[in-house]
Write a structure and sequence with these properties.
about 350 residues; alpha/beta; Rossmann fold; Alpha-Beta Plaits; 2 domains; four-stranded antiparallel sheet; 12 helices; about 35% helix; ABC transporter ATP-binding protein; ABC_transporter-like_ATP-bd
């Protein structure tokens, strides 16, 4: 393993396989590498005395054609700095990165990328149509093809109704959609998205999730950073988790997440205080939710004993739910842990 403390699920740099993508994941696993990052570092000089701050400390990962790759980490972990180095906006201090086999920065590689920054800047006096058209022209599109592509992107991201409204009158979510349409207008092979769900309401988030899945189904590769773990778990084939500038976890979600039942929740109605106290004395968690009681059992071995005791005590069993490890559990266990193991 090339990074101390990093979990690497699977063989080689990163193992293929997806959370829910089936054949698409297998295709991605066998595909070519579009992004290759080896020992990438970035140090900034800050303050009057030029104090050195290491934002990225030797990051390694690969992204393969046709997959959705999630890039996660707490605020300040180095995600956006890494993306800026990949897209050529800033230069690395050390290490190397390759896009489509070309060393970064590469003008040729940039032409094959669509990029949505975390806070896209759109000229306030332009309309979404004008801004997307401008981005299309910068990508080499012109004439009827540009007009058609612009209209298609406005419809795709759901802002066709506001296409000719000045950007300064748009909401944060609509600005985000405008930036996403601009990233897609050139029909890029690789889509790099920095916090694409930022500013979106729940309906907008679902629409963007569906759009990302649709783009992957069409053969596009998506690399995106986010702090919304449920979106990553629902969409991504593989992930890398950063902490303090280092990758601490990377690999296929299905291999990273534990398959064992970590906890079983038994929901009861009509449970007496005496019954609840007995469960607590046995070491189970007990919490009240509305007019029901939820008994939290570690693992699943004692579920039968709890059910028998509940029925004998006159309670009604409403639900028994096994809880397996989620991406949030993994994130809290590894990305925010102060005591990462040095080997896995």
């Amino acid at each position: 393993m090339s990074e101390a403390g990093a979990i690497d699920a699977g063989g080689g740099a990163d193992s293929g396989g997806g959370a829910d993508s089936g054949a698409a994941s297998e295709s991605a696993a066998a595909g070519e590498t579009l992004i290759e990052v080896r020992g990438l570092q970035k140090t900034f000089r800050v303050g009057f005395y030029g104090r050195r701050v290491e934002a990225v400390k030797g990051v390694d990962f690969d992204v393969r054609r046709g997959e959705i790759f999630g890039f996660l980490g707490p605020n300040g972990a180095g995600k956006t700095t890494t993306i800026k180095m990949l897209t050529g906006l800033i230069k690395p201090t050390g290490g190397e990165a390759f896009l489509f086999g070309a060393r970064v920065p590469s003008a040729e590689a940039r032409r094959r990328i669509g990029f949505l920054p975390e806070n896209p800047y759109v000229y306030p006096y332009l309309t979404p149509r004008e801004f997307i058209t401008l981005c299309g022209r910068l990508s080499g599109l012109a004439g009827a093809a540009l007009a058609s592509r612009t209209q298609a992107m406005l419809a795709k991201v759901g802002i066709a109704y506001a296409a000719d409204r000045p950007v300064r009158r748009l909401s944060k979510g609509m600005l985000q959609r405008t930036g996403l349409a601009a990233a897609l207008v050139s029909d890029p092979e690789l889509l790099v998205l920095d916090e694409p769900m930022s500013g979106l309401d729940p309906v907008g988030r679902k629409e963007v999730r569906d759009l990302i899945l649709e783009e992957r189904a069409a053969g596009r590769t998506i690399f995106f950073s986010t702090h919304i773990l449920s979106d990553v778990e629902a969409m991504c084939d593989r992930v890398a988790i950063l902490r303090e500038g280092r990758v601490v976890v990377r690999g296929a979600l299905r291999k990273l997440l534990r398959g064992d039942v970590l906890r079983t929740d038994v929901t009861l109605a009509g449970a007496s205080e005496a019954l609840c106290r007995s469960f607590e004395q046995q070491g189970h968690g007990v919490r009240t939710r509305a007019d029901v009681v939820v008994v939290e059992i570690e693992g699943e071995k004692q579920v039968g004993d709890v059910l028998r005791a509940a029925l004998d005590g006159g309670a009604q069993v409403l639900e028994v739910v096994p809880r397996r490890e989620t991406l949030e559990d993994l994130f809290m266990r590894r990305a925010l842990s102060q005591g990462l193991s040095r080997e896995d």
